[in-house]
Design goal:
Number of strands of chain B: 23
Mean pLDDT of chain B: 83
Shape of chain B: elongated
Largest sheet of chain A: 4 strands, mixed
Strand order of the largest sheet of chain A: 2-1-3-4
Distance between the termini of chain A: 18 Å
Number of helices of chain A: 3
Largest interface: A-B, 39 and 26 residues
Structural class of chain B: alpha/beta
Strand content of chain B: 25-35%
Number of helices of chain B: 17
Largest sheet of chain B: 9 strands, mixed
Oligomer: heterodimer
Strand content of chain A: 25-35%
Helix content of chain B: 25-40%
């Protein structure tokens, strides 16, 4: 039974933490989620309305929508283990 | 050379006086207070009035309550935020708490927050923004260094956008630092404190204090603050400007014999104090005074703290005065109720508003003692001075009554601050003569003119009201015993001396 991860990553333009977060997340996705994911990257500068809807304050913010429960992680995601923990993923 | 700081009207009555102009334009002002001090009401009012009175659209950033809660609570003031939102004059940024904590991994900033603020400002073309409260940012995020830096960045951006910002912050205790987390360090130019203390009588006293406004003046004292059903009001201590017009014209008190004692009546713009024990006719004197005005189409205002409206009207009609007629005509305004409900600061404002609204030329108040009974000496004094100063500036002639106990009478009057603030003083007393109670009236002083110093007998005539019969002639020991009488004369002289001394020193 494959579970699909639905993730949203909010960033602010091209700031260094935004770029780091994208890179770190791609890394995690490649190694840990193995294609079972759906990721949307949202730039708050371009789409502030979405940021308002999801009540985003800090960037970067990674939100795991599925599977439940919803989880939020803020920061450039530089510590892989903490990110996995935050996403309820265990490292095998 | 530093440009003078420009300010915008705050929308909170009283604040613009305390701050010498309002809230600094295009800058961030910090409002810090403990919970319950009124921060949220103040910030909402600042925005709401900004839209309704000054056509400046608003963004409200809320961290504590949801936008729905705020809109609902504010309805009790009669303000409709939903309507403003529909009309695109108001936008919320909802930063109220979500379920769950944030997990922090690595570096972050408040880019999302800033983007949302800018979006909201642009959406409604806002010129005012309130953030309630900034302290929540420190509670919600672990890195205070990041939060400080980002707040600074946001404030700078708001300045670039020329939006005036009010930020609220929490104070953990009344007498601790300015705010939790030291927010004031970087919003340090303009800081306002809201206090919420228990006074000696166990009552809550809220006050406002401007700690600093960079580059501009402001009052340094604390001023009382009240939140009523129409919003927040502040009451700076009135600074009596001694610029009332000089005395020239004399007008009637409504009591013929009394006008004679003043040699033609009391000066327009003067304040007359009628002091006496209960039952001596003080309320009747106020009725004379306002009816005289109303019947000559002079707008008059009667403020009655000792009797209910019904009692007053019955009282008046028993002398043949139809108060209702004058009220319907518009030449008489009447407030009658017991003063326990509101605080003295509210009364001053209510009276001021009524006088201004109706361009009243005569004001009578019965009695000051009803307020003195309830309020601290400080507040009572503030009220009397403030009222007097206001009435002088508005060129209003006033009659104020004061209830004294039978025994103390004159000496009490001359010792109180009331005697320095009033221009004319009338004493009403009971005296015992030949086994009967008689009534005695005396004019103790009239500033700026001579007066009849004789002790007069009067009665309260069912058809005429106060009726001055004539001097107590050929009678000695009017006030129970010769020792007493001498004492009274001495007091009169002392009072006159005091009055002359103060006149020559140029005090009021």
């Amino acid at each position: 039974m494959t579970t699909k991860y639905v993730l949203k990553l909010y960033v602010t333009g091209q700031t260094s933490s935004s770029q780091k977060a994208i890179k770190n997340l791609e890394n995690i996705i490649k190694h840990e989620l193995r294609g079972l994911y759906q990721l949307k990257v949202i730039d708050v500068l371009k789409e502030p309305r979405l940021a308002e809807e999801d009540k985003i304050l800090a960037t970067p913010t990674l939100t795991k929508i599925l599977p439940r429960p919803i989880r939020r992680i803020i920061g450039d995601l530089s510590d892989k283990e903490s990110v996995l923990l935050g996403l309820d993923l265990t490292v095998e | 050379m530093e440009k003078k700081l420009s300010k915008i009207p705050s929308g909170i009555p009283g604040f613009d006086e305390i701050s010498h102009g309002g809230v600094p334009k295009g800058r961030a002002t910090l409002v810090s207070g403990a919970s319950g001090s009124g921060k949220t009401v103040l910030s909402v009012q600042f925005l709401y009035k900004g839209v309704s009175d000054f056509k400046e659209n608003a963004v409200f950033v809320t961290f504590e309550e949801t936008p729905e809660d705020i809109s609902r609570n504010i309805k009790s003031f009669g303000w409709n935020i939903e309507k403003l939102t529909r009309e695109k004059k108001w936008a919320f940024v909802d930063a109220s708490p979500d379920e769950g904590d944030n997990v922090e991994v690595g570096q972050y900033d408040l880019g999302g927050f800033l983007a949302r603020i800018e979006y909201a400002i642009e959406k409604v073309g806002a010129k005012r923004i309130a953030i309630d409260s900034v302290s929540a940012l420190f509670t919600n995020f672990q890195s205070s260094g990041i939060i400080r830096r980002e707040l600074y960045r946001i404030i700078r951006r708001l300045k670039e956008l020329n939006v005036t910002c009010l930020m609220t912050a929490e104070r953990p205790t009344e007498d601790g630092g300015v705010s939790r987390y030291g927010v004031e360090e970087f919003v340090s130019d303009n800081v306002v404190l809201l206090h919420n203390r228990l006074n000696l009588r166990g009552e809550r006293e809220r006050t406002v204090e401007i700690l600093k406004f960079r580059g501009s003046g402001h009052d340094s004292e604390e001023a009382p603050l009240i939140v009523s059903n129409i919003g927040m009001n502040m009451y700076p201590r009135p600074k009596p400007k001694l610029c009332g017009k000089g005395f020239t014209e004399k007008i009637s008190t409504g009591v013929e014999g009394l006008d004679d004692m003043f040699f033609g009546g009391v000066y327009r713009n003067s304040t007359t104090l009628v002091s006496g024990a209960s039952g001596t006719g003080k309320t009747v004197s106020t009725l004379h005074f306002v009816i005289e005005g109303a019947s000559k189409k002079e707008k008059s205002l009667l403020i009655e703290f000792e009797e209910s409206p019904d009692q007053l009207c019955r009282n008046a009609s028993s002398f043949g005065w139809d108060l209702k007629k004058y009220v319907d005509e518009g030449s008489l305004q009447l407030i009658a109720h017991y003063p326990e409900d509101l605080k003295s600061e509210q009364y001053l404002k209510i009276i001021q508003d009524l006088v201004l609204k109706n361009s009243a030329k005569r004001v009578a108040l019965d009695s000051l003692s009803a307020l003195e009974r309830i309020y601290s000496e400080e507040k009572f004094r503030s009220f009397v001075i403030g009222l007097n100063a206001f009435l002088k500036i508005q060129n209003v002639t006033s009659l104020l009554t004061n209830t004294t106990s039978q025994l103390l009478g004159l000496s009490q009057i001359t010792e109180t601050h009331l005697s320095t603030v009033t221009d004319n003083i009338i004493i009403l007393k009971y005296v015992e003569l030949g086994g009967k109670m008689r009534r005695l009236l005396s004019v103790l002083k009239q500033r700026g003119s001579m007066h009849n110093k004789e002790l007069m007998e009067y009665q309260i005539d069912p058809k005429k009201g106060l009726d001055i019969l004539g001097p107590f002639k050929g009678v000695e020991n009017l006030l129970s015993g010769s020792a007493r009488r001498v004492e009274i004369r001495f007091d009169e002289e002392a009072a006159e001396t005091e009055f002359l001394k103060e006149s020559s020193e140029g005090r009021i």
